[in-house]
Amino acid sequence: MNKLIKFLSRRSTWSIPYVVFLMLFVVLPLVLIGVYAFMDYNGNFTIANFVKFVEQPEAIKTFIYSVAVAIITTFLTILLGYPAAYILSNKEYNRSKTMVLLFILPMWVNVLIRTLATVSLFDITGIPLGEGALIFGLTYDFLPFMIYPIYNTMMKIDKSLIEAAQDLGANQLRVFLKVIFPLSIPGVVSGIMMVFLPTISTFAISELLTMNDIRLFGSIIQENIMLSDTMNYGAALSLIMLLIIGITSFFSGSDESEVSHGGII
Amino acid sequence: MLLAVLYTPILIIAIFSFTETKVLGNWTGFSMKLYTNLFSGGMSNSLVSAIKNTIVIALAASTIATVLGSIAAIGIYNMRSKSRQAVTFLNNIPLINPDIITGISLFLLFVALGISQGYTTVILAHVTFCTPYVVLSVMPRLTGMNPNIYEAALDLGATPFQALRKVIIPEIKPGIISGFILSFTLSIDDFAVSLFTKGNIGLETLSTYIYSDARKGGLTPELRPLSTIIFVTVLVLLIIINRRSAKQAKAKV
Q: What CATH number does the domain located at A57-222+255-264 have?
């Protein structure tokens, strides 16, 4: 009994419930995706699900198309979000943080309602829905997720570094290129993670924005996984998605360590 | 300019919440009918139950996530660095995974275990993606804390549980509160995870209701005043919080 009390009052013991929880609800489910992906309807081992993916031109096409749309969206959010974050981190706007709040606030409106509002915006102005609307809508929906991490890293930049560069005779442009830009890269990287991955896997937004005309990879996964006879194929597609996540986070992870390493030097 | 683009769609919803039309973009004269409908129960039962479900699930999930996450954070903070890194890595997985992967993996778990999906599974799923955020918001509070205070309490004869209640919890309280608020908003906002774990017993949250509504072709008009009200409430709350922290910052100077 005494031993038990001692064990319970060691504070590192307290993480055990959560570790068990993580194993059961995070690790095991991800392993299950892998298991189901290599199983046929009757539970036997097979690679047929992957063969099906490679052999179906439609699935491959959608996959490549989704990656392309995600890259364009990510690029646009950087293009729009980076200057916005730069302006926001400037002293003059930063007094009351009201501007920052105004940029983050749209994140609190349900993403589906925002998307439907975008649809109505296109209806009112008479622009037809389609590819353009899709990319506009995705950029609009994910822009705050790019601005916020970039803004955060910019705020953390040591102001004395900028002053030092100015004292040493650098003009505004050079200060930006040599000091602010390199130091803000980690923010851009986490912004990419927060925009690129959700964009590939989105399904509801693309369905609403194109009247179900253009389907992204997420839609295909969703359609297959919900039906019991194509569930294993859906799991295989999810595994491919997981692979992309792994690759993306591996690259951004190594980028980040490089940057922080360079920062120390 | 960018702000204008960001807010146009929201403004459109707000403006069209004052007219009765079924389709957005078709102004049929000023009317408060949608607002009165919203409060007098003149709207469909399924929307009412969707709103109720959303709130119940969000409250349950964020409460469980806050308790689980806070206790876990204290535990993780006191672990040796190797195992600490491992748990932190696990904790980051739900943060990186897109919603659809979290949803699908949990869906497969419930299918494999033969658990019928409904209220419980949605709450469990929400706890899964909320808890990491609680851990992340409590952690900085723990690292910023002076560890000697806890030791001092023990030296002065406090039991570990007294020391926890009197020393650690007051110190990390702001982190716990922000973790709870974050979990609550995440849960309310969630769509994909709920969609995959709600099963087919007819359980709908606000997000899944909007989704099936929009797929049928039209959006229930009462959703416009509802989202306007939610938006204005959040706006006012944020402005108040902002004013207060600005005042505190001034007072300190």
A: 1.10.3720.10
Write the CA distances from B100 to A44, A152, A228, B15, B106, integer angstroms: 26, 27, 17, 33, 10
Q: What is the ipTM of this complex?
A: 0.79
Interface of A with B in 181-210 (CB under 8 A): 193, 197-198, 200-204, 207-208
pTM of the model: 0.82
| Confidence tier at A153 by pLDDT (50, 70, 90) | confident
pLDDT at A48 over 70: yes
Q: Please, which residues 105-124 of chain A have a Cβ atom closer than 8 Å to chain B?
A: 105-106, 108-114, 116-118, 120-121, 123-124
Residues 128-167, chain A, touching B (beta carbon < 8 A): 140, 143-144
Hey, is the C-beta of B21 within 8 angstroms of any chain A C-beta? Answer: no
Instruction: Say whether residue B59 is in contact with chain A using an 8 A CB cutoff.
Output: no
Span A124-132, average pLDDT: 77
Residue A102 with chain B: CB contacts under 8 Å: 3
Q: Quick one: tokens of B36? A: 């009165």
Tell me the pLDDT tens digit for each residue of A60-70. Answer: 888 888 999 99
Q: For chain A, what is the total number of helices (H) and then of strands (E)?
A: 15, 0
Mean pLDDT for chain B? 81
Q: How far apart are CA A226 and CA A237, in angstroms?
A: 13
A209 min Cα distance to partner chain B (Å): 11
| Domains of chain B as residue ranges with CATH | 1-43+226-253 (no CATH), 45-219 (1.10.3720.10)
Q: List all residues of chain B from 125 to 164 with a beta carbon under 8 Å from chain A.
A: 125, 127-128, 131, 135, 159-161
B220 or B166, which is more confident:
B166
pLDDT tens string B221-248? 777 777 788 778 777 777 776 676 666 6
Instruction: Tell me the one-letter amino acid at A80.
Output: L
**Chain B contact present for A30, CB below 8 A:** yes
Give Cβ neighbours of residue B183 (< 8 Å, ≥ 6 apart).
B61, B62, B65, B66, B130, B131, B133, B134
Amino acid at A105: L
Cβ contact B96–A197 (<8 Å): yes
Tokens representing A28 are 């095991």
Does the pLDDT at position A43 exceed 90?
no
Higher-scoring residue by pLDDT: A194, A120 = A194
- The amino acid at residue A20 is V
Q: Which residues contact B224 (CB under 8 A, 6 or more apart)?
A: B13, B14, B16, B17, B24, B34
* Dist. CA A159–CA A189, nearest whole Å: 22
- Give the model's confidence band at B62: pLDDT under 50 very low, under 70 low, under 90 confident, else very high: very high
Domain boundaries in chain A? 57-222+255-264
- Identify the burial level of A152 via C-beta atoms within 10 angstroms of its C-beta, where 0-12 means exposed, 13-18 middle and 19 or more buried: middle
Rounded CA-CA distance B150/B167 in Å is 6
